[in-house]
Amino acid sequence: MHLKIITHDKIIFDDEVSEIYTKGVDGEFGVLKGHIPIISALDIGVTKVIQNGECKAFTTMGGVFQFKNEEATILTDTAESGSDIDVTRAKLAKERAEARLAEKTADIDIKRAEAALARALARLKVAMVQSQK
Fold first, then answer.
1. What is the pTM of this model?
2. How much is the pLDDT for 106?
């Protein structure tokens, strides 16, 4: 089956894969060859693909997943492969988000801080998968 991961700026991935695992707003799910057509809203998380027996991981920061006729497409605002992630920057973003959430003051935008934390954790998870190769 074919997978294409597309952002507003560029195509992040465009190739044949044997397995796709991603995070929808209703939970994680996987797609194998022969899967019935599906469309799902994506949450901030990790998309893993198996290609030639090797696992590749990408951050997907929300968006839409569609699978039909052995063609999978992910449309997302932001996506990164594990090799593109700056681990130090992601750790600092995680620490900043955790500190903001711990402040407990009225001027904190809780939803924004939670989203920042989710993005940082997704980046760190993808970087960890990439480093295990």
1. 0.85
2. 66
